[in-house]
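pasting for the record
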Amino acid sequence: MDLELLKEIGLTDGEIRVYLALFKLGSTSTGPLIKESKVHASKVYPILDRLIEKGLVSFVKLDKKTIYTANPATTIISYLDKLQGKIGQQKKSAVNLIEELTKLKSLNKTESETTVFKGAKGLKNAYNIAIKELKKGEDCYAMFLPKVANNLLPFFEKLITDVSKKKVNHYLLYNELSPEIDLIKHLPGTNVRVDSPHGYQSPAEMCVYGEYTIVSTSGGKEYLTILIKDKIIANSFKNQFKAIWNQEVQTFHGVEGMQFAFDEALRATPNGATSYVFGATKTSKGTDKLLFEYNKRRAEKGIKLKILFNEEATSSKTTRSARKETNPLAEIKIMPHESTPSAYEVFPDRVIITTASRGNPTSIVIKDKEFVKTCIIQFNELWNQKTRTFRGKKGVETIFNEALNSKEIRFIGGNWGMVKYHKAFFENWNLEREKKKIMWLDLVDADVLIKQKEVPKQLKHYQVKVLPEQVNSPGVIFIYGNKVATIIWKKEAIINVVESKETVDHYKKYFDYLWDQRIKTYSGKDGVKNLLNTMLDTESKEYFAYGGPQKAYDLLGHTFWKSFHEKRVHKGIDAELVFHSSLGWWGDKLNELELTEVRTTKKDFEELTETVICGNKVAIIVWLDHPFGILMEEPLAAKSYQKFFELIWEK
């Protein structure tokens, strides 16, 4: 049976399963229906309500039971007629709204227009309007660009060509590799990057051309385009784009993402150059295959490799890159150190930090020449055996007592290992540090503030920030005086110390970069929960969110969302929330809370993204099976998003 039509007319997978089960069972109560449809009991009632609203299901009360029945199949035609009528009514309403907006515009000294276009033709009209008034030398931006549908490829190729002819600077930020990139990347003034997490496909994109801002769905099945003419909103989106464009850190997930990162690095590396690797350990089967093929292509370009492996890699059957016969043009050394979770791959223009020992690796790309220099210096120190190595309690006491001669100490990846394994020593050492007024700047692992019970509650001359979660590692970098120490915390700690002013200076620059970041990313369910709780850590008493889909509720669960909103209400934060209609039943429950108002949108498609604004913070959450989010702390961006929310709220 072809069920695609049911999806196309707006039925969800759950609605389709319940609808078909009713045809199989006939008139029935919810018990057999849950069993036949395999839909969770908590979801079957909202699904039945939606099917009844669509006219596809009816019910009767028998004694104390409610009996549900699928209406005749011909009601599908009636439902389609109803949808068609609704669209016709919406068009009439849109005409009236446009007339009212035109009147308002004539009364307002500041020119501000919002126009909604539907369909491919409307999308093309919106873009053509936006680029019409571009001036020579102007900067224009397009970000979160998805893979363009085939039927729109000729249009976008011509559009970007026309923009190039206007002699403007055009910056395009793609979510993933897309067919039109090869067609337009050579055009004058056209700058292209593929910088979003690999594998993320979103139908939504944002573009800024002069005073126009476009929010479009050129990558989805339905084309919905919002065109906003407002200089303040356009400038705010420009600032947001620049912040994202200038980010030097990218994160890729899985073997496919690692492949993408290494392929891009190899293309950017000149023939005959040298790359360096340290911290290399045994690899998983998938990453071994990837690196084996990569090293063959590296050697074909004449690129030499110097690599430092941990000892356990030599006995691994899935680590061919640790053997000279299967790693061409490579110079290999083995270090007598414990294995570490991350390897540093150093190229001329970037460093890739990988967890290649895992079956589902994470690869972090840092495009920063100063950090490249730092890593090469650290590599050479290790390669030339000039580092000092300390072990156990005595080693910990030696380097921490050395640090008391410094005016300032810094940690990257602090995880309170010293408190866990050497608590008595830490308390005495910290008293001496506070007595000497030595400033301690601490970039801690994202999980530490939540999970570590040993964390001291109050410290003097101490500042702490949370490290972006992609950089987290059990290893800790300790910067003091003219030394950099790398610490692996365990009962018998291992500490490598490099004494070099140049190394310290470069690590301080890297520290400052992480310390001053205004954009952070969070991944996984726990990461997104942490992000949402971070949004409530504010003095603001207003909370706005739009785009909330059913999947957001399903992924984080009822317990979390109930607790989250109770916490918000307890803090006196007033919320205005816009949910997709699929989550309307949950919105009804939230409306019973104080300081809460929920409205729903009846869009034909359910968005992957949700935007949250609270105070100076903006969170953009992508509700995939493995969700992730971006946190921006930027007052102007927050104000812009709030203004955009107000447009949605009033509609």
